[in-house]
Amino acid sequence: MLGRNVGRLENCAGLKNTGMLEDEGQYLQDVYPLAGDCGGDGRFGFNPRMHLTETSDLLTPENVARLWASWAPYWDESKTTFVEKTPANLLMTRFLQAAFSNSYFVIVRRHPVSVGLATQKWKINVTSLYNMFDHWLRCHELFDQDKRYLNHVYELSYEDYVENPDKYHQEIAAFTGTRVPEPPKEDKFRTVAQWRSYTGLLVSERAMEEVSGVHNKKYFDRWSNLLTHSTFKSYYRYIARKYEPRFSKYGYSLTKGLGIDGEMLGGGKVSNAVGVFCCLAADTGAFVRRVETRVGGHIKQLIKAVLPEFFLTRISQRRRRDALNKERARALSH
Description:
Blueprint: H1 2-6, E1 12-14, H2 61-71, E2 81-83, H3 93-99, E3 105-109, H4 112-119, H5 129-146, E4 153-157, H6 158-163, H7 165-176, E5 189-192, E6 201-204, H8 214-228, H9 233-248, H10 269-306, H11 309-333
Parallel strand pairs: 1-2, 3-4
Antiparallel strand pairs: 5-6
Helix pairs in contact: 4-5, 4-8, 5-9, 9-10
């Protein structure tokens, strides 16, 4: 959402109508590896191939031209500033700055609980929560090293952004040398492809999208419940104790402000030993689920290969109707 709103600033153009998930530029190019090919969301930061700098062998004039050619057809080239948002850009800032010397980076940071629990919904890359926390820290620690080499970087938190989006739109506009446009009297809409959505997300072309903290609250409530009522609360309390000091460096807490009593987390040799064992069990369970999901995906591909096109079309139409009915029901409930 922030990426699309930056693309709505005066004389800015974001990637549009790409047909790819969230209009992310990574899917349009073949110069650098996709996050999905390096472990996927919640895992790609551990793969050395994803951390690119100005010393990368991929940084050649030919590859820079290929990158531009991949993205340019989806930008309004009458504008002066071009916006590309891909999560893994966090690990490629130095590479992108070397490729495009007049680069400006807007880095948005989000609470690790929300990031971890949200990413676990992507079942093909499901990862244990403690590994999600490790991944968050790994990516941000790499960026902390890289940002010393950047000429233009602006950082904000998701939590601050949803509290006061107008303030940050103004600051980002000033940072990039433009301004926030007046709200349009008339507007058009387009669809952005999203994972597990047949209808996609309908967004405005010019008006800023409204933001809300309701999504974070959902994950905070779930985290609180895991710490207090889960059968595996020993595991969740262990990782809360383990990662609290490291997240505090970034201004985040796994207990404070979330309605969780820090004393409840306890500790001690026995508790820590149980926590370590639970981490191993969580990794094993996540691995089994990834294998099951990917095997299931291969079976689906085999079925598609042998079923007549007529049946595949009917199945697709039925799924689309079901998705539309769910969207209508959700709209009516609000």
